[in-house]
Design goal:
The protein has 2 domains: 65 residues, Fe,Mn superoxide dismutase (SOD) domain (Helix Hairpins, Orthogonal Bundle), CATH 1.10.287.990; 105 residues, 3-Layer(bab) Sandwich (minor pseudopilin epsh fold). Strand 1 and strand 2 form a beta hairpin. The chain is globular, with a radius of gyration of 17 Å. The longest helix is centred in the first third of the chain and has 23 residues. It has 9 helices and 3 strands. A 3-stranded antiparallel sheet has the order 2-1-3, with helices on both faces. Helix 5 crosses helix 6. It is mostly helical.
């Protein structure tokens, strides 16, 4: 079955003023759509791979034929990352997580402020294009990592709980070269309910 572009879970302007409507439209309808289309093209001659879940493909890229491995890594990663990214943002969101997630973040990073500082440094320190992540490692421990381009934490046996896209196409129309302003504004739209849901799945 062909991979499909998931609908954006809110209107293009829902995250204004932090993420502008035009950026959301282009980011979803053009960039994410291109990843999906290119992934499907790469898999056309491999019906067995078409049946595999995207996360399974990306978790074991060495099992993907070398001829299409870069395309699956880049476009499959872009599709996977963005499919989560849209859900990690919501209107009237932001703030701090509570419950078990909030406690685990506090334990791992010395408090929410410590986590936010480390995550922001990962986002700002990524040279060029890539992502900053809050992940759970193989033992369930929380850590902050960064990946280049559209690489996913899955390739390193880590499960993504929260990710921030720092490719310029995610912010350039509104923030130009001011990545720090974009990162700072993004905290106002973080959908902690979605992060908490993923965290709960890992803990189960």
């Amino acid at each position: 079955m062909a991979h499909e572009l998931p609908p954006l879970p809110y209107a293009f302007d829902a995250l204004e003023p932090h993420v502008d409507a035009r950026t959301m439209e282009i980011h979803h309808d053009k960039h994410h759509a291109a990843y999906v289309n290119n992934l499907n093209t790469a898999l056309e001659a491999y019906p067995d791979l078409q049946k595999k879940a995207l996360a399974d493909l990306l978790s074991d890229l060495n099992a993907v034929p070398e001829a299409i491995r870069p395309a699956v890594r880049n476009n499959g990663g872009g599709h996977f990352n963005h499919g989560l990214f849209w859900k990690w943002m919501a209107a009237n969101a932001g703030g701090e997580p509570g419950g078990a997630l909030g406690k685990s973040i506090a334990q791992a990073f010395g408090g929410f402020a410590g986590f936010k500082d480390q995550f922001t440094k990962a986002a700002m320190g990524r040279f060029g294009s890539g992502w900053a992540w809050l992940v759970a490692d193989a033992s369930g421990g929380l850590k902050v990592v960064s990946t280049a381009n559209q690489d996913t934490p899955l390739a390193d046996t880590m499960k993504p709980l929260l990710g921030l896209d720092v490719w310029e196409h995610a912010y350039y129309l509104k923030y130009q070269n001011r990545r720090a302003d974009y990162v700072g504004a993004w905290w106002n739209v973080v959908n902690w309910a979605e992060v908490d849901s993923l965290f709960g799945q890992i803990k189960r």
